[in-house]
Here is the input.
Amino acid sequence: MNGPTATGGKPGRTAEGGKLSRSFGRLVLLGTLLVIAGIIGLIHTGVATLTSMLLFGWLLLIGGLVGLAHAIESRGTNYFWLGVVVAALNLAAGVVVIRHPEGTAEALTMFAALLFLTGGVFRLAGSVVVRGPQMGWTLLQGAFGLLLGLLVLFDWPHSSRYVLGVFFSLALLFDGLGLVAVGVGGRRIVSMVSDRLDAPGPATDSPPKAPEGGQK
Here is the structure.
């Protein structure tokens, strides 16, 4: 029987391809929104810093509430009191961050500067001691981390108004670009596969050939 469903089920394949294409289209839309948010954050770094601090505080609050709910569910076990303590610390930290976003930004900026400094020093010392094949690249990374840490530290606490906002905005920008690349590439692949599947194949149902000679 030669019908549309017996020759490969093209309507089903087309529907699946349409669903995949729409899913990748949503990724492109989300990535575009993240890119726009990242660009706006790079322009208004102070607002981006406060926004990142408020998001951080609310994430701590939500994590504390979820942890408290899990601790209550596991009451009577050894995990109960540990879960309660961790949830209480998350809740307290979330309240402090939301009520004092500027002070939190200053503390986190100082912590980031110290991380850059220590990471740069260890990379520089390690590259000199080990002298591996990637010594030049490691030296460059260490020097960059050391310089960045010193710049942030020397401008502290004023640097707390823009450092975290710049990092937050760059993260949004690169994540958005990655989602856009995945979405556009996925839609192209789906389109290519759909075109291959919908292309007519070689004819298989040919009429039988008549014998060259008659029956004797």
